[in-house]
Amino acid sequence: MTLIDGDSDIGSLDVLAQNMQAIKDGYVPKNKDEKGNIIDIRKEIVKLYDHTNLDIARINYTKTMTNDTMAELAKNKLLITELEDKVKESEEFLKSLTDKTIEDMKDLSDQVQEKQRDMQKEYITILGIFAAIVLAFTGGMTFSNSVLENIDKASVYRITLIALIIGLLFFNLLCLLIDFIRDINGKIPRKKYLWIVVNGLLVLGIIGTCFSYQYRWFSINENTLNPIESHLCFTDIADTNSKDMPVLFWQFRQFSGKF
Prior knowledge:
Helix content: over 70%
Distance between the termini: 152 Å
Largest sheet: none
Structural class: mainly alpha
Radius of gyration: 63 Å
Shape: rod-shaped
Strand content: under 5%
Order of helices and strands: HHHHHHH
Number of strands: 0
Number of domains: 3
């Protein structure tokens, strides 16, 4: 029967069951033995019928269980496929999350480094500003002291020329320092019209001083003594007798006429 169930060309279990049913129902004992007794094999036919139906039922049950098992296997396979897809999606999500975390950490590290560079730029800017202030004040005070100390030893042309040249140098030095600070901080370049105007005025002042010295535009008596104390001392006035006062006033008028 297993062969019949496995090969449809041989037959069918349903047809076999129908045939066995027909044999059992249509059996009529006709044959006799040697003694003239009727040979009745009804019990054997019923027994064969029962065994046949039992095997058919067993085969059908086995087929049903096999089909159910195959269905469960297909269902489990589908579940396994879904689980594999979910695991794959989880792995991809975990990988993307890991990549995003690494990228965020890299961005955070870049931001920290950028902030450190900005802090360094700010420190350099602050130091540069203080250096410019110290340089300007130190140079200005030194130059002012030098000019004031030697103002009676040089002509006005020389003092003016030196003052303009040093002012030009200090102004351009400060401009270079400020431009350097701007470049470090990435700021936009300054407007150059102020630099051009100031440098132009200083250069015109230098040229004008040279021409005024060459053509003597300003007449200055170099022999005139600067300090009034060389002609008149107030302590001497206090110690001088009243009879010498007219002479002192005359000397003072003479000095005033020269000055």
